[in-house]
Amino acid sequence: MAATAKSISLILIAVLFIALGQVFWKLGTNKSGVVTFSAGHIMSSMSQMINTWFILGCLMLLASSVVWVIALSMVDLSVAFPFQSLAYVFIFFFSIFIFKEPVTLLKIVGTMLIISGVITVAKS
Predict the structure, then answer these.
(1) pLDDT digits (tens, 9 = 90+) for 3-56
(2) 103 contacts 78 by C-beta, under 8 angstroms
């Protein structure tokens, strides 16, 4: 199946939702602190990490799955799946602007390689 503007848009939305889900989980762990799992304390560990950000992250990942399945019904998996790597690109930018993480030359080069790879696959 050939990729269309609609299928590519759905794929990008699904990938964005994946990245946002991860951002929300990170915001949740920043709020709850380090989560440790130990035998006998699994329930208390799980309750420690349940907060609004965690729930929003779960909802984003669920929404991503729904949109992804719809997109897969429209396009070949070999075309769609490489777009998943764009989650790294979204996370790169979210990490800089939301979490104030450092930017390094290697991260920039890696991000550019990912983008060029996705463009190459999309044009094939």
Answers:
(1) 889 999 999 999 999 999 999 999 998 887 777 767 666 677 677 778 899 999
(2) no
Give the Å distances, CA to CA, from 20 to 36, 50, 120: 23, 17, 25
pTM above 0.70, yes or no: yes
Q: Return the structure tokens found at 41.
A: 């304390």
Q: Take residue 42 and report the two structure tokens written for it.
A: 């699994």
> What's residue 42's pLDDT?
67
Residue 116 domain boundaries: 5-123
Counting the structural domains of the chain, the total is 1
Question: Over the range 10-19, which residues count as b (16 or more CB within 10 Å of their CB) and which as e?
Answer: bbebbbbbbb
**pLDDT band, very low/low/confident/very high, at 63 (cuts 50, 70, 90):** very high
Length of the chain: 124
Helices 5-32 and 52-72 meet at what angle, rounded to 10? 160
